[in-house]
Amino acid sequence: MSRVLLDKVKTDVSIKRYGVNIASICSCCFTDHYEESTEHLLSESHNANLVWSFFCNSCSIRLVQGQGNPGSAGGGGLIRDYNGVLIGAFAEFYGDCNCNIAEVKAMRRGIKMCITKGLTNIIVESDSAIVLNLIKRIRKPPWRFNDIIEQIQTMTKDRNFVFCHTLREGNNSADKLANLDEESKTVSIFNEAVSLPLNVRASMQLEGDGIPNFRFRQKKNKFVINDIT
Q1: Is 76 exposed, middle or buried (0-12, 13-18, 19+ CB in 10 A)?
Q2: Which of 158, 213, 225, 228 is 20 to 30 A from residue 70's alpha carbon, by CA?
Q3: Is the whole-model pTM more than 0.85?
């Protein structure tokens, strides 16, 4: 990434800067002949157009989150297009279970919503690396929620779903939805951004403005002094 930002990618144009005279033709373009530069390769070439058209024309992004470890648990998620515009969201109460079960139940709910809405090219983002490894068959799922994992695998088998890990800081909006129904003990479906709770809309606005989200942990006392008299 730093090479791209500093324009240090080894292209014909960068070689010419050192006084080497060469005929520059982009190898990614088959019909028209363009000079090979970093900007052209990443934004204007034939291969770049294929990549960006995939993400910009039909890609939906979804965030899911589960709460409970163990105890009263809830899950929530958002479905958004490539511009960050809300397509749908949900918050659901699951009763007493651990966080992994809540996570897979929330993921199943979100995937069903995507299929129902006829969405394609879905990127599923979750902050649970354990659940993602179970879905990708890297690890064998526990018997407690093996059936849910199999349902997710079956629903996404012949569809273009990509599962990715995100940090918890990047899952702030879904986290707030998960907390919402864990507190209200209900099931809520949202089809418009205006119907979302105010704190969720505020979190989405910060994400849209490119403002990072921080997680602060309370520092524990490392030293204990016992006053013995």
Answers
A1: buried
A2: 213
A3: no
Number of residues assigned to the chain: 229
Among 217, 203, 177, residue whose Cα is nearest residue 84: 203
Q: What would the pLDDT profile of 173-197 be if each residue is shown by its tens digit?
A: 888 888 876 667 778 899 988 999 8
Report the candidate in 171, 136, 174 with the shortest Cα–Cα distance to residue 152. 136
Cα–Cα distance for residue pair 27/227, rounded to 1 Å: 76
Determine the Cα–Cα distance for residues 146 and 131; give it in Å rounded to an integer.
11
Cβ atoms < 10 Å from Cβ of 219: 6
Q: How far apart are CA 152 and CA 111, in angstroms?
A: 8
Structure tokens at 67: 């709460």
- Structural element, H or E, at residue 201: helix 198-208
Q: Measured between alpha carbons, how far is 68 from 101 in angstroms, rounded to an integer? A: 9
Nearest to 64, CA basis, from 164, 149, 197, 140: 164
Spatial separation of the C-alpha atoms in residues 77 and 90, rounded to whole Å? 6
Q: What is the pLDDT of residues 37-62, one digit of tens each?
A: 777 666 667 676 666 565 554 444 45
